[in-house]
């Protein structure tokens, strides 16, 4: 059976402090959670009732077993998850200092990580072709053999071969510690964009992908590259999306921020749900924006992903219109 959403790339154990507002050196207790952007997006979509799966790799260790167990707990198909002998499952620590200081510390990713050892020959290309949405990230392009595997996956799913209602999404999640330069990342993004129908990133990430400029200029460049929907996150100003025929903006959904790290992944999973539901772009953005806001108000990422009821409730509280199909299902 085809998945509604199939993601590919990073997974890790997130080690988040229970002590909020202090530096990492002073934290006394921590909690352990599933992490890694593509894995979180799959979890988020599953919370909205979508069948989702992730293509990734862990170490052959207890943390790897923990992550596979967590994926199953959240209803994400772990059938494309394997372990890599000789490598440890990565862990990501953060310090939580609201409202906007959440530094990340990556362990077990240098010089490489299990999820960067995905090879093209291991891929189930039919599953990739059949998925309603195939979602990858720029981080997956930073190193071989993952880079070639991502190229092979996208080449197996050409833009012109997609059926109505299918989408291929590239998350422009540029993380400088994984790259030698922005120029290298831009060159690799250029290899993937010809296969992508949706690109999502903030202004800094879009600048790495297609050069600096205003959000509208960046979106236009993504559209010129063949993308059908260009989404540019505007920070405190909300989020904007452009197609060749229109432009939509969703204003921020104000919340008391506790930990902003999982908001983008919550946005991604909800955005996929809205696309697959066939909602108008404005409704998709509002729904995804509210999903991200909810997670920003919570401590963890995967565990914090909201249900449709929670998202619709927040939209109602903020006086936002609801997607008709979603409102009818309440």
List the helices and strands and how they pair.
Blueprint: E1 5-8, E2 12-17, E3 30-35, H1 37-47, E4 52-59, H2 62-73, E5 76-77, E6 81-84, E7 91-94, E8 104-107, H3 125-130, E9 133-137, H4 146-155, E10 167-171, H5 182-192, E11 198-202, H6 203-210, H7 215-224, E12 229-233, E13 239-242, E14 247-250, H8 263-277, H9 281-296, H10 308-317, H11 324-328
Shape: globular
Main beta-sheet annotation: 10 strands, mixed
Q: How far from one another are the termini?
A: 27 Å
Radius of gyration: 18 Å
Please tally the β strands and state the result. Answer: 14
Strand content: 15-25%
H-E string: EEEHEHEEEEHEHEHEHHEEEHHHH
Helicity range of the residues?
Answer: 25-40%
Q: Note poorly predicted spans.
A: none
Overall residue-averaged pLDDT value: 95
Structural class: alpha/beta
Number of helices: 11
Describe the fold and architecture.
- The protein has helices spanning 37-47, 62-73, 125-130, 146-155, 182-192, 203-210, 215-224, 263-277, 281-296, 308-317, 324-328; strands at residues 5-8, 12-17, 30-35, 52-59, 76-77, 81-84, 91-94, 104-107, 133-137, 167-171, 198-202, 229-233, 239-242, 247-250.
- By secondary structure, it is an alpha/beta fold.
- The strands form two sheets. Strands 1, 4, 5, 6, 9, 10, 11, 12, 13 and 14 form a ten-stranded mixed β-sheet that branches. A four-stranded mixed β-sheet has the order 3-2-7-8.
- Strand 10 (167-171), helix 5 (182-192) and strand 11 (198-202) form a beta-alpha-beta unit.
- The longest helix is centred in the C-terminal third of the chain and has 16 residues, at 281-296.
- It is globular.
